Amino acid sequence: MSATPFIVLSAILFTIGCLGVLTRRNAIVVFMSVELMLNASNLALVTFSRANGNLEGQIAAFFVMVVAAAEVVVGLAIIMTIFRTRRSASVDDASLLKY
Amino acid sequence: MNFTAPHIEYDLISPILVVLGVAVVGVLVEAAVPRVYRYWTQVVLAAVGVVGALGATVYVLNRIHPGSDHPKPGFLVAEGALAVDGPTLFIWVLILVLALLGVLLFAERQLEGGVTAFAGQAAALPGTEAEREASAQGLEHTEVFPLLMFAVSGMLMFPAANDLLTLFVALEVLSLPLYLLCGLARRRRLLSQEAALKYFMLGAFSSGFFVYGIALTYGYAGSMEFSKIAQAVASSSGSRALLLGGMGMLAVGLLFKVGAAPFHAWTPDVYQGAPTAVTGFMAAATKVAAFGALLRLFYVAFGGARWDWQPLMWGVAILTMVVGSVFALTQTDVKRLLAYSSVAHAGFILTGFLGARSLGEIHAGDINPVQAVLFYVTTYGLMTMAAFAIVTVVRDAGGEATHLSRWAGLGKESPLVAGIFAFLLLGMAGIPLTSGFTGKWAVFAAALSAGAWPVVIVAVLMSAVAAYFYVRVIVVMFFADPVGDGPSVAVPSVLTSSVIAVGAAATLVLGVVPGPLLDMLGRIAEFIR
Q1: Nearest to B200 among A60, A74, A85 (CB)
Q2: What strand order describes the sheet that includes B488-489?
Q3: Which residues form the NADH:quinone oxidoreductase/Mrp antiporter transmembrane domain (chain B) (predicted)?
């Protein structure tokens, strides 16, 4: 079975995630878009693993999942602190540092 | 199915293991040791751990037999996941020295009147009763020390990583603790939290690109190992689109970490908002680790595709130097100014990185690009650390006085502090007899011999622009009249003073006698493949 459709799908998912990060305002949604990018990468890794006939890509996908989980812990802690301080999770409101 | 256990050379990776072990013990200390003893326990533990790791590095260094007639170039350890060779060991020593200075800066208590510069209770909202109570009780977050140690362990792994997966894990291990550290300032907490948010969001975004780059490169080469990628590049097998896409996306992730334009937008905000001790450590050590990883990835794995990535990197280097130097001209905040200056430095280091040539083209006596880059990051790291340490001691009623206008008349208030800061700025500008001059000369020479003369011309022009804004700060300190009460210089404890002294001394010594270090780097600056 050809790997191309899966790679195309992962590229589409990655692009959606990328656009989400660039256009959405809510920090949580931006963060979800980043996770979508990571999962698109996982799909590509697993597909290439199958196409190349070795397991390295699948192992890498597990590591990416673990790292994504760790990133959630750190990220949500930071977003929570900001939300409790400002009563807003909008990334546009965090604009004290500029110029 | 037979399963063979992987063979790990624990002794050769002991510096990483020591630092990770200290970090884990540090977390246990938080749980088990009473609050009154925690600060000292953590400080001593972290300092001893870093010194121990330095000792372990010296042991590993001796295994390579650097002095003998047939020195070993290095070892591939842990089934080829990590490469312990000359550049790795040098970067380990440098990062551990910077980490030790970082521990000293983090431990400083005298400037804030008996507490560290980190939030008393990060969970207490700014401006509430809970925060005032935490501050009245003299609470402090000693978790910063284990966080620092985790970041250091990632930084040790990053330049040694010899496959894409290890590279990714190391990148995250070094980044995640730094995101948290950025948000823990005791004063100006809104700015600090905002810095953490911005750093985290953009860091996560760039690591998304990095992972996709890993996937594409893996699809191209069929392996994560650098040596196998190099083989695939050499035999030009597989799809070129995958190689170019993968290489570009990996570059995005790494250039984000070194703060190169156009991925530098986070640098000024994060450097300004983060606690100054964290900024100093982050500016120095992250850049060292990330340039180490960038060199290894692009020289060892993608060295054969040099003609594909070099033009792009020319553009990035030029843009980085121009953006860093020109934007620094208009800054009015000292930390922001130093941040833009670090962007400009990233551009200068990239200039040295462009000196990539095949080994046959490097003649004896030439400055090799790895040597030039390692020398530059050494001088840059120590100068930056000392400069940010000085920012912590110039204070007014609201804490650190970072606005440039508040620094007017500093030369009269404290000639010593202003003099050292002026010397460090001259070093950053690259005035002869400072280490910055030798560093700039080395990277320019390396780039020139690879034919990157347009980049070197821009670099020389931008050095002149950069000299202007460094001198502007010196003029403000010595020749402007103070506004109102003028700045005051708090007397720091021996911790911060020693960081400043070490940075200034290194800037002077490496400027006057750069020969020994350059020669030593020339002998070891070769990656094993």
Answers
A1: A74
A2: B399-400, B394-396, B488-489
A3: 161-463
